[in-house]
Design goal:
heterotetramer; A alpha/beta (156); B alpha+beta (401); C alpha+beta (119); D mainly alpha (322); B: 401 residues; Cytochrome-c3 Hydrogenase, chain B; 2 domains; 10 strands; 48% helix; disordered C terminus; D: mainly alpha
Amino acid sequence: MNPETIVEKIHSDIKDKVQEVALTAPRRIQVKVGREHLNAVLTYLKEQFGYTHLGTISGVDLGENFEVVYHLSDGVATVNVRILTPRSDPKIPSVCSVIPGAILYERELQDMFGLVVENIPDPRPLLLADDWPAGEYPLRKDWVFDRPAEIIPGGA
Amino acid sequence: MEYKVALGPQHPALHEPISIRMTLDGEIIRDADLKLGYNHRGIEKLAESRTYIQNLYLTERICGICSFSHQTCYTQGVEKLMELVPARRGLYIRTLVCELERVHSHLLWLGVAGQEAGFESFFMYTWRDREVVMDILDWISGNRVHYSMNTFGGVRRDIDELQKKKILDSLGLLKSRTEYYLNLAASEPTFLGRLAGVGKLSKETAIALCAVGPTLRASGVPMDVRKDDPYAVYDEVPFEVCTADSCDVLGRAVVRVKELIQSYLIIEFLLKNLPEGPIKVKAPRKVKENEVYSRYEAPRGENVHYIKSNGSDKPERLKVRAPTLANYAATIAMLKNGFIADIPLIFAAIDPCICCAERLVQLDSARNGESRVLTFSQLRAMANQRYKNVNFKKKDIAWPF
Amino acid sequence: MSLKIAPFLPELLRSLFKKPATVKYPFEKTPVPKDFRGNVVFDPPKCIGCMICVNDCPAEAIEIIRVSETEKKFKMILHNDRCIHCAQCVDSCPTKTYHMNAEFELAVLNRHQLKIEYK
Amino acid sequence: MAILKPILYILVYPGLIFLMVYSTFCEWYDRKLYARLQNRIGPLHTGRSGILQPVADIIKLFAKEDIVPEKADKAMFTALPIFALAIVCTAALYLPVWHYTEAASFISFPGDLIVVAYLLTLPTLIFFLAGWHSTNYFSAIGGVRVLTMLFGYEIPLLLALLSPAVLADSWRLLEIARFFQNKPLLMLVNVIGFVIALIALQAKLERVPFDIPHAETEIIGGQFTEYSGKKLAFFRLLGDIEMVVGAGLISAVFLGGFPGGLLPGLAWFIIKTLFVISLLAAMRAATSRIRIDQMIHFSWRWLAPLAVLQLFIVIIIKGMVS
């Protein structure tokens, strides 16, 4: 098994669910799917190639949309499965039924980007404080942190 | 009777703040829950407002023990974004520092395992011998913790013949000491009794919960980024991936000790085959629009940086996944049905390095079992209130003798 | 794997007669390595005012101020309380204006004393 | 004069002043030896080679703020450390250190071995109460562990102390010591008992490998979690004195006591207790903490049967000798 054959197989097997598939760098495969097909694609990758190790889930604020990238790795290549979700309706499906280890990353996404992960087994906040104001999501680009002026104790 | 105990965020076994909520039945843990965020510093947000060069030193400060891991992971990612081919000698030196860091981190872990098990002598001896490798790192990079060796396109400091000789001389000592510790850990009955059979994590659970590093390898899964996705010069270096199939804390210790011995071999190979030439090439300041998923085998496991560039001199997004976060889910599984006495060992066995953002304390009232959650500001107000009410008499404040 | 009674004891007894490994730090100091990154030292005449160091400094610890309107003369204010001693300024400077010294005992009681001015 | 002598006993030697001074010295010796075994220096700066460090630690604790938890039983919480300290100091008075007179210790009486063993058990119960009255989960776990451990080591310790007493045909420390001084070779009969007593004493003192009740990486300070300031200082001092008394008891029973007058007796006392403390320190350095279940298992699987075996050996030897 090498990265090229994985790309070809994805291309031939689940063409209808995948919007884009390409080998962009050595051992890096980019797959773009619609968010409704995410679980199906991950299940396919798990059953067909044994992709069970989820490196992490990265969220990126693109302005209009949020991009969510699932990084799956094994000994052959890393598959970056990418979905887009609009800012007005930031819902993504939970992948915990396919990959149980994704729970912490999904909770982090909820905290930091305000994405709504549907069917998440454990929706409590992970990183942010309990008295963190609702509706503020630190890693969104429009959330700006005003650095307070530095006060050095002991006068000027 | 089941009762709930909060271990941490401040606890002698935890070197950094994290909270474990345990449901105990006598001495046995029935359920555990982790609460993170006491140490979140907002590095990912901060990185978006910094240039690539400034981020080099920011990523280095994600962790104190694996500072070089984070920096290298970031540097390699940015080098790929810049389409830069680093200098070969630079790559060799970079790999050398990687392995030296692994040696010092694993020796540190051995000591911590000894300390958590109450084996203070073991802790003192391993840390004494760790000074040898710390001195090497100090000697080649200039500093003990933050080596700052990486730059885009290579490394910042060269190695001369004298340093080479000194490292090779010290390796012999380290090798014999490591073998001694392996024998010791396997024959000391009290220590072995604490490690063996503790914190079982089956192969299937480890894979399903996406564990990484020695935790995963001790469950018999030979996953190592250095072999799977070779970076730097690992494709030229012969080494073995160390695994154990006992699935317990002892297995994790054995994996680490075996990795130490492999690391010594790698260091020896690198020093003997160090190519001549420049140590770095010139790097551009701006980076084209692209993205990269950089993987690195840190001493604690797979370290991941996802960098997205937007054409300017600052990254659009830097996502960092430290190995410890990946191991938390597995830790919960390991803690269940263990003894209270095993918590520090199981928790230490993933070699936790906590970098996470909230301040909160849960107080369980001893009399009525009610639990209260206090935010940091409330806690501070309580402390101030207490000391306002305390009527210090003059004789209490004065030196009593 | 065989269990022994007190396998650690010989090693322990041996170290009774060895010199302790502890360095009595404030009384005995070990020498610093040659590449040690201590305090930043600035050499004002060499500075050409390109501001690369100010832009590259990760800790915003460097301030470069033009002293005279007519001549190319600069002074540097080092905020040593922010400095993280990464030596990027040494690497970035095109005219080798910076170098690091070997000082490491930098603690003071007042943070204002850490502001160093090089003219 | 008759009244002065007991006062001298209680206050000077082997009473309070001697105990305080000697126990802090023993702690320093234990720490220094433990450090040297680990290739460290140990206490260094307070006094010559840090000999005053334990005193400085206790003075520091006395100067610290003394916090009593809001929900704790204040009277018990305060009284327990004082009681515990008084009890071990009392136990020290029974040690036969004044060996030049017939009445070795002014309160010596037939059967004082049992009294000392009993008095050394009481602090353990006080530790449990201290943990229980602190109203803290960690203290409660520590307190329960103290009691669980007591069931492990107490019976082997008593059996081990019993065998020399059976051999000497007396329950009086003075007579046991005198018996072994006259027949030093018979001390070799009790080697197994000596080892068992050492291990059990280590467990009683709650030191590695038996520091399970206050294992700081697991349950913070165990029964002492909520204690601070002066009360903690009392507990620290208690630990030191208990170590001296325990070492004294073992030397009196197994190592032939402290023959001679005032000065030779004192010298023997110091030599023999330091020998026992050295063994304890080496045991502490060479092992790792074990789990409570492993400890109980170990006591009942090995210590108790071996103690019974020792008793049988003693009975057989006794039959042969007499």
